[in-house]
Amino acid sequence: MPLQKLQGAMRIFSCQRSYCLRAQGQLTKDFMEALKAVAGSSNVSTSLAVREQHGRDESMHRCSPPDAVVWPQDVEQVSKLAAMCYSQGVPIIPFGTGTGLEGGVSAVRGGVCFNLTRMDRILQLNTEDFTVAVEPGVTHKALNSYLRGSGLWFPVDPGADASLCGMAATSASGTNAVRYGTMRHNVLNLQVVLPDGRVLHTAGQGRHFRKSSAGYNLTGLFMGSEGTLGLITQATLKLHGTPEAMVSAVCSFPSVQAAVDCTVQMLQASIPIARIEFLDDVMISACNQFSGLSYTVSPTLFLEFHGTPRSLEEQVQNTEEIVKLNGGSDFAWAREPEIRNKLWTARHNAWATPRMCVSPSPSSPRSWWRLRETWRNLGSRALLSVTWVMGTSTASWCTTQMTQMKADVSRTSQTDWPGGLWP
What we know:
Strands 5-6-10-8-9 form a five-stranded antiparallel sheet. It has a four-stranded mixed sheet with strand order 1-2-4-3. A four-stranded antiparallel sheet has the order 13-14-12-15, sandwiched between helices. The radius of gyration is 24 Å and the shape is globular. The protein is built from 17 helices and 15 strands. The chain has 423 residues and is of the alpha+beta class.
């Protein structure tokens, strides 16, 4: 038995090794014609520009383009195309809107990229059950626009206008996670095309039950799988009632510890906060410059509450007391949607903020000014702020960009900087 187990392990390793060493760019002409026969010639591309567009996302990883890109129109095409790739040992890379931060779309060994954005139908809305079924091309902003007037909304908001099935594949969260949970808590069923072309419904076809106490949690298995287990071609989502009233607030603190203590005390007091986000003074300074805002440059909390007008009054009163106990100041409340959206502009632009000065052009004084200002105000301290707000993968990206900025400055003489903007 030990010898048989060893031989089995060696066979598995041999298969993995041969797969991983597969050379990029080895798709045959016959295989390409077969792809076009299923998806249509206009839905298959080997153009370098198109492949490079699909070879990276918003992460720090460099571009690794696939050998070809296909745009399936329905789940049947996805199934046939996946089966073809599987039979030929060709890697399959799912692609949504390209807003991920993990590098999951990088075709490190070539293969075929499945762009699912043309499957963009909202299939079934059940207002009585608070559920909706969507195809992978539907974004969370498009869904909420569709739900306008129904009294329902989908609260998971990662900042970027990501596709909902892509959000399921990456187990996205967002600013509303403190009250409404992440994607993992708001997906009831998934339709998945497995690598060999078989179609799987993780909770059973057409089912959207909230309670489950039997069997494997297959929906949870595919959540956060990053496209490594299958292609998500449909998601059944849990909706929530639109709050009767919303109010947002921004408040600054004398220190990071004071802001953290305030957050802990609000949660301990069971105040039903819908959103709570923290930005330190470095990130606030950068956001002010990038978004044209005028927040106090100090550790800052962004808050939002949902409920009835009467309940909001109580929440606001309790929150103000806790904020004052922790030295908070510059408390600014906003009830109108336009003002509330403006208050959250800094948070939603936090990802773009550290990138605002990348690849400056000598012909663009504004781009050099941004580089100068970021270099002067952020420096290496931006790493702490980005790590806190956006996570370690973004922090790694920021480290790379800071290194590149140093190289740009060292290669540039003072006379090359327009308008005397030398830092």
